[in-house]
Amino acid sequence: MQLLNLVSTLFQPAADLIDNMHTSTEEKLVQKTELVKVQAAILDAALEYEKSNFETKSAIVLAEAKSDHWVTATWRPIVMLVFCGLVVADSFGLVEYASGSKMAEEMWTLLQIGLGGYVVGRSAEKVASTVMNNKK
Fold first, then answer.
1. CB of 86 within 8 A of CB of 103?
2. Buried b (16+ CB within 10 A) or exposed e, 85-116
3. Which of 50 and 117 is assigned the larger pLDDT?
4. Cα dist. 4→7, 17, 23, 26, 89 in Å?
5. Each residue of 2-58: pLDDT tens digit?
6. Would you state the pLDDT for residue 49?
7. pTM for the structure as a whole
8. Partner of 71 at 20 to 30 A CA spacing, among 25, 46, 62, 91?
9. In angstroms, what CA-CA distances link 74 with 60, 80, 104?
10. Do the Cβ atoms of 58 and 34 come closer than 8 Å?
11. What secondary structure letter does DSSP report for 94?
């Protein structure tokens, strides 16, 4: 959604310029139509890039999960278990940080990113195995 807002924001000054032109309404509509076509082409390319990026990340997670080496295949679950342990320890006040305060905001952000990546990766792994089994 941020990508759509960014593209829209980038094209807004051009749309305003067309609105402020001293020309006929028909000419303004032609110019706005051309601007919308360019904006749509850029959005299409950006969304295609995002799709490719997501597919690449999914392929990496799948390759790691299917690895024959136990460290490569299990490092994500191990990291998530450590994160969960830190959250539980922090909740019960069992962990003391250098700042003397609760778990840092950065740690919570890292936990959210890690959990999101782990869940998406595991889901992709399950879907891929189901697809592969159905093809056989």
1. yes
2. eeeeebeeeeeeeeeeeebeeeeeeebeeeee
3. 50
4. 5, 20, 30, 27, 40
5. 776 777 788 888 888 887 877 888 888 888 899 889 988 888 888 888 888 888 888
6. 85
7. 0.49
8. 91
9. 14, 10, 26
10. no
11. -
